[in-house]
Each structure stands twice: as structure tokens, then as C-alpha cells.
Amino acid sequence: MIAASVNPDLLPKDNRMLPSEAEEQAALFGWAQMKSYFYPELNLMFHVPNGGKRNKAEAARFKREGVKAGVPDIILPVPRGKYHGLFVELKRIRGGKPSDEQLEWIAQLRTQGYAAEICCGWQEASAVIQKYLELRQ
Q1: 53-92 burial by CB neighbour count: b if 16+ within 10 A, else e?
Q2: For 49-95, how does the pLDDT look when each residue is reduced to its tens digit (9 = 90+)?
Q3: Greatest alpha-carbon span in the chain
Q4: Which CATH number does the domain 18-133 belong to among 3.10.450.50, 3.40.1350.10, 3.30.1360.70, 3.40.50.1820?
Q5: Distance CA 107, CA 113 (A)
Q6: pTM (2 d.p.)
Q7: Which residues make Cβ contacts (< 8 Å) with residue 127, sequence separation at least 6?
């Protein structure tokens, strides 16, 4: 899949001035809400709240309940083209790096017939999602 790119010369030099991953994700879901008139399937898109800092007891409880490290942030359970659905791991526009677990999940999902992408920033993610939705059904 082809992702949009952001001109790095237009970004602040200090990563602290860039939106956080949470802010990027909120912007992406705001975009999806606005675009859902044209792409009603976007109403099925959701976030998997796997990330975040937790104490050991809470982390152990979540693990027992099925939380798994590396699962992509966003799922669009809509088949398109040869794919069963789309998974997106969303990173900050600059400075976010996928973990080994995230890279493994992406590889395994692709092996199982899913589109799976790592996107830097909501704009890149929105371009990937829109391009995915425009694949022939």
C-alpha cells in the first residue's frame, strides 16, 4: 500500500512540540467520523487499548484476559481486494519506532491475508485507510 508523506522540513525540530501518539489517534478518528458519510465502513473502525503503562498486578490481569503485546492500534474489520481487513499501527509523525512484537504482529497478520501497515501520523494513516477502502471488493 502507498502511504502519504509529510514534508519533514515543515515539522518542528523538537519532537516534544509534535502531537503525541494519542493526539494523532484522536485526529485520525476525527477524520474517520467526518469521512464516514463517504465511507460508512469507517464506523466499524476501532482502537485496541493494548498500550500504556500499568502496574504489575494490572498487567498480569490484562494478560490473563487476553491482552497481547504488539497488537496493532487500529482495526478496520472490512474486507477489500484480497484482504480480510486492515490493521494499522499508528506512531507519532516522528520519533515513534515499532517494537519487535509489533513488527512480528504485522508480519503474521500479512501472512494470514490481512493488510497491515505502520503509519507515522494521522495523515499517513488516513491516506492508507482511504486507499484500502477504495480497493475493489
Answers
A1: eeeeeeeeeeeeeeeeebbbbbbbebbbeebebbbbbbbb
A2: 876 667 888 878 888 888 888 999 999 999 999 999 999 999 988 77
A3: 46
A4: 3.40.1350.10
A5: 10
A6: 0.84
A7: 2, 3, 4
CA distance 19 to 27: 10
pLDDT over 80 at 30, yes or no = yes
Burial of 100 (0-12, 13-18, 19+ CB in 10 A): exposed
Domain range annotation of the chain: 18-133
Q: pLDDT per residue over 37-47, tens digit each?
A: 999 999 999 99
Higher pLDDT, 33 or 21: 33
